[in-house]
Specification:
Oligomer: single chain
CATH superfamily of the largest domain: Hypothetical protein af1432
Shape: globular
Distance between the termini: 30 Å
Radius of gyration: 18 Å
Largest sheet: 2 strands, antiparallel
Number of strands: 4
Helix content: 40-55%
Number of domains: 2
Structural class: mainly alpha
CATH topology of the largest domain: Hypothetical protein af1432
Strand content: 5-15%
Length: about 250
């Protein structure tokens, strides 16, 4: 699914060179860019790094250029892409809860990795990955529990407020909130973007939640749990040492 129907955002048409690494000019660390990222924040030093290959040539003719540029974030000045602004909002909500901040960022990394193969709408996947657990603290406050069913109740209103404040479209907001509201139960959604988020969350949670399963039980769990070919393949490599699912 492409943002606004834009073929440049449709990852089915991307090539290997559209995801690349560049050196951070501030610290020399490695920063991964997707071709539609005007800039990223270096995880090693925290400084903003502009995409050296960012191309806005399509803005001269594309009917969706203005909205696309606003969604991506300006490449100049102090503006940050939507991705980095969402991370900042997630950190604001979680405050000093470093464990949950680290989890959200790990799920984001896994989701972006799965998108390399699966495709999907990058904006929806990134927003859902960053905000999927955003209702945890409110669930604990109101229900005395961080159980998944309470996260699914409390998360969508918080996510909706954040996304609306960033000026995202109703379709994107509704899609992300449906993912947040189903990320434990998978009751009411089965989009590609949801499946990518589901698998990314499983990839991060599996070692912590099932640390002592024997190999056969782990293999059976992986076969049941994962919803995308890329997620299943990575789980088999990462947890079973297999090149692919048998």
């Amino acid at each position: 699914m492409a943002i606004n129907g834009c073929p440049g955002q449709d990852m089915r048409y991307w090539k290997i060179k559209d995801v690349f690494e560049a050196a951070c000019p501030h610290c020399g660390g490695t920063v991964e860019f997707w071709k539609d990222d005007p800039c990223r924040v270096c995880r090693q030093c925290g400084e903003k790094v502009e995409n050296p290959r960012f191309d806005t040539g399509c803005a001269a003719w594309c009917a969706h250029a203005k909205e696309c540029k606003e969604l991506a974030g300006a490449a100049q000045g102090d503006a940050l892409p939507i991705r980095e602004r969402l991370i900042a909002e997630m950190k604001r909500v979680f405050g000093t809860d470093e464990r949950r901040i680290r989890h959200a960022l790990a799920v984001l990394d896994a989701a972006e990795d799965l998108m390399h193969t699966e495709g999907g709408d990058p904006l929806v996947v990134r927003a859902a990955a960053i905000l999927h657990d955003i209702g945890i603290l409110e669930a604990e406050r109101k229900h005395g529990s961080a159980a998944g069913r309470f996260q699914e109740i409390e998360g969508p209103p918080i996510a909706r407020h954040i996304l609306a404040d960033l000026g995202l479209g109703v379709g994107v907001i509704d899609h992300v909130c449906r993912i947040v509201g189903n990320h434990h139960s998978a009751r009411d959604i089965d989009t590609l973007e949801f499946r990518i988020l589901w698998d990314a969350d499983w990839l991060v949670n599996l070692p912590e939640e099932f640390p002592s399963l024997d190999r056969e039980k782990l293999k059976a769990l992986i076969g049941r749990a994962f919803k995308t070919p890329a997620g299943l393949s990575r789980a088999c490599r990462q947890f079973l040492g297999e090149a692919k699912s048998e």
